[in-house]
Amino acid sequence: MAKTLLLTGRPGVGKTTVIRQVAALLGARAGGFYTQEMRGPGGRKGFRLVTLDAGGPEAVIAHVDIRSRNRVGRYGVDVAALDSVGVAAIRKAIQSNEIVVVDEIGKMEMFSGEFRGAVLKAMSSDKIVVATVMQQNHDWILALKGMPQVTVWQLTESNRNEMPGRVMKWIEEKTSHV
């Protein structure tokens, strides 16, 4: 039985919005994290990782001012911050929650071997995993999408408003079989 739901779609279509709505509906059943744009004068400046734990840690994982050899576009990626907060949130969710939420599995996160390992551990656990994943082809992402326990849904402008309800229905179907 598929226990992992990956939401994919073009950048800006609303993947994070859907995952935040689903996490809010799940409440304490879910652990993990979502990402949040950091905006300033002139537009987007970076990305912050926000854990689902009330008052839990947050970390800036990418920013125009971060100097790093790991770069995506104009953003330097802080792999140590991703590992210390994001990977820790995934591991904690596997231990403590019914559902693991990961937003997102994308270019920035691919720089971290620890992150990839934590995602695989969550997906191979007995937990339900709901994650967003970049649409662009990447060998590791294609392998994830092809795993037997994975269901992939394409998020579009025409289906994004109904998607939180669809995701919740999918989760309830999975948990009623436990």
Can you summarize the main beta sheet? 9 strands, mixed
User: What is the CATH fold-level name?
Assistant: Rossmann fold
Write down the domain tally: 1
For the record, the CATH class is Alpha Beta
Write out the CATH superfamily name: P-loop containing nucleotide triphosphate hydrolases
Order of helices and strands: EHEEEEEHEHEHEH
Strand content: 25-35%
Strand order of the largest sheet: 5-6-4-3-2-7-8-1-9
Helix content: 25-40%
Topology:
Elements (H helix, E strand, L loop, with lengths): L3 E6 L5 H12 L3 E11 L2 E9 L6 E6 L7 E2 L2 E3 L1 H18 L2 E7 L7 H12 L3 E7 L4 H7 L4 E5 L8 H13 L3
Parallel strand pairs: 1-8, 1-9, 2-7, 7-8
Antiparallel strand pairs: 2-3, 3-4, 4-6, 5-6
Describe the structure.
By secondary structure, the chain is α/β, with parallel strands linked by helices. The protein has one domain: 3-Layer(aba) Sandwich (Rossmann fold), CATH 3.40.50. The chain is 35% helix and 31% strand. It contains five helices and nine strands, in the order E-H-E-E-E-E-E-H-E-H-E-H-E-H. The protein has a nine-stranded mixed sheet with strand order 5-6-4-3-2-7-8-1-9, with helices on both faces. Helix 1 (15-26) crosses helix 5 and helix 2 runs parallel beside helix 3 (113-124). It starts with a strand and ends with a helix. 38% of the residues are buried. The mean pLDDT is 93.
Quick description:
By secondary structure, the protein is an alpha/beta fold. The protein has five helices and nine strands. It has one domain (about 5-175): P-loop containing nucleotide triphosphate hydrolases (Rossmann fold, 3-Layer(aba) Sandwich), CATH 3.40.50.300.
